[in-house]
Amino acid sequence: MNKGHEKDEWDSGVPRPSEALPGLDQEQLRVLRQVGRQWHRVAPRSATEHRALPVNPDTGVFPPAADIHPTRFGQLVRVSSLGGGVSEQRADGADEAGRSPVGRFAHRSRRVLLGAPLKSTAVVRESMRKLVALPVLSADALSSVAYGPEAMLAVLVLAGSTGLAYSLPIAATIALLMLVVGVSYRQTIRAYPHGGGSYIVAGDNLGLMPGLMAAGGLLIDYVLTVAVSIASGIAAITSAIPSLAPATVPLGLIMIALLLVGNLRGIRQAGVLFAAPTYAFILAMFALIIGNLADSAGSGFRPTPAPHPTATEGIGVLLIMRAFASGSTAMTGIEAISNAVPAFRPVRWRNARTTLTWMISLLVAMFGGIIAIVHLRGVIPRGSETVLSQLAHLTFHSGPMYVFVQAATAAVLLLAANTAYNDFPRVLFLLARDGHAPHIFLRQGDRLAFSNGIALLSVAASLVFVVFAGNTDSLIPLYAVGVFLAFSLSQTGMVVHWRRVRTRHWRKSLTFNATGALLSTLVLITAAITKFTSGAWVALMAIGLFFLLATRIRHHYQKADAALRLHPDATETRDRAGARAPAPAPTATPHPVQPEGGWPDHETGQGEEEKEETPQAVHHLAVVALASLDLAGLRALAYAASLRQPTLAVHISPSEEEAQRFRGYWTTWGDHVPLHVVLSPYRAIVAPLIHYIEALHRQRPSLTITVILPEIVTQHLRHRLLHSKDAARLRRALRPLPKIVVTSVPFHIS
Amino acid sequence: MNKGHEKDEWDSGVPRPSEALPGLDQEQLRVLRQVGRQWHRVAPRSATEHRALPVNPDTGVFPPAADIHPTRFGQLVRVSSLGGGVSEQRADGADEAGRSPVGRFAHRSRRVLLGAPLKSTAVVRESMRKLVALPVLSADALSSVAYGPEAMLAVLVLAGSTGLAYSLPIAATIALLMLVVGVSYRQTIRAYPHGGGSYIVAGDNLGLMPGLMAAGGLLIDYVLTVAVSIASGIAAITSAIPSLAPATVPLGLIMIALLLVGNLRGIRQAGVLFAAPTYAFILAMFALIIGNLADSAGSGFRPTPAPHPTATEGIGVLLIMRAFASGSTAMTGIEAISNAVPAFRPVRWRNARTTLTWMISLLVAMFGGIIAIVHLRGVIPRGSETVLSQLAHLTFHSGPMYVFVQAATAAVLLLAANTAYNDFPRVLFLLARDGHAPHIFLRQGDRLAFSNGIALLSVAASLVFVVFAGNTDSLIPLYAVGVFLAFSLSQTGMVVHWRRVRTRHWRKSLTFNATGALLSTLVLITAAITKFTSGAWVALMAIGLFFLLATRIRHHYQKADAALRLHPDATETRDRAGARAPAPAPTATPHPVQPEGGWPDHETGQGEEEKEETPQAVHHLAVVALASLDLAGLRALAYAASLRQPTLAVHISPSEEEAQRFRGYWTTWGDHVPLHVVLSPYRAIVAPLIHYIEALHRQRPSLTITVILPEIVTQHLRHRLLHSKDAARLRRALRPLPKIVVTSVPFHIS
Question: Region Disordered: start and end of each range (chains A, B) (predicted)?
Answer without folding.
Answer: 1-25, 572-615
